[in-house]
Amino acid sequence: MAQGQVDPKNIPDDGLTTRQRRQLPITAIHTGHGKGKSTAAFGMALRAWNQGLNIGVFQFVKSAKWKVGEETVFKRLGELHADTGEGGPVQWHKMGEGWSWSRKKGSDEDHARDAAEGWAEIKRRLLAEEHDFYVLDEFTYPIKWGWVDAADVADTLANRPGRQHVVITGRDADPKLIDVADLVTEMTKVKHPMDVGRKGQKGIEW
Predict the structure, then answer these.
(1) Contact (Cβ atoms closer than 8 angstroms) between residue 130 and residue 54
(2) Which has the closest alpha carbon to 68: 33, 41, 28, 102?
(3) For the chain, percent helix, then strand, then coil, each to nearest 5?
(4) Run of H or E residues at 76
C-alpha cells in the first residue's frame, strides 16, 4: 500500500467525505518509558505553527528555572509571527512562570490545587476554542497522582468543540485517555546513556 493511503477495508461508514475526515481534530498521546515523548509532541507543534495554527503549550512538571530548548525556539517563532505574520501565534505556560503553579515548593495539597486550577484553565480555553493546537506536556503525571480527574479530562477531550488538536505527553497514560485518543504512541526504552551513569547533555536533554 502506498504511503499515506488508507486501507479500503478500514474506511469507516460515517457518511463523511475524505476531505471532511481530514479536518477532524486529533487527540494524540505520547506515553511509555522511552525518551522522545515531548520531543515528538513539539515536532507536531512545529508543523502546526508552519500551517498558521494558534499554538498553546502547557507544561505541568518542568520547573520555571529549566529553560528547555523548545521553549526558546517557540517563543521566538511567536515573536516572528507577531512581527511578520508568518506561521501562527504561540503561548507557552509552565510551572512558576505566570501560570497557576506556585513559585515556591509547597505541599502535595498545594500542588494538587494548582494542578487542578491549571487544568480548569485549559478546559476553559478548549471550550472557548482559544487555540488550534495544544501541547499538554507531562500532563499524565498530575492525573496519575490524583490531582486531576481522568474522567473529566477524557470527557472534555471527547466533547471539545471545533477542530482543536491536543497532544498529551508523559508516562503511564490513564486508560480513560487512551480510550478517547485517536493516536497513541508508546515510547519503549531499549538503551539510555543515563543507565550507565552519563549525565544529560546540551542539545540532547535541553
Answers:
(1) yes
(2) 41
(3) 40, 15, 45
(4) helix 69-84
Question: Which three cell numbers mark 174?
Answer: 490513564
Please give the distance of CA 183 from its chain centroid, rounded to a whole number.
12
Longest Cα–Cα distance of the chain, Å, equals 55
Query: Which one, of 134, 109, 151, lies nearest residue 25 by Cα?
Result: 134
Q: For residues 87 and 93, is the Cβ–Cβ distance under 8 A?
A: no
Q: Which of the two residues, 16 and 127, has the higher pLDDT score?
A: 127
Q: List the single range of 7-11, 21-25, 144-148, 196-200 with lowest mean pLDDT.
A: 7-11
pLDDT of residue 14: 66
Distance of alpha carbon 204 from alpha carbon 109, whole angstroms: 34
Indicate if the alpha-carbon torsion angle 34, 36, 40, 41 is positive or negative: positive
Q: Which residue spans within 55-138 are E strands per DSSP? A: 55-59, 90-94, 133-137
What are the C-alpha distances in Å from 102 to residues 11, 15, 59, 125, 145?
48, 48, 14, 21, 18
What is the overall mean pLDDT for the chain? 85
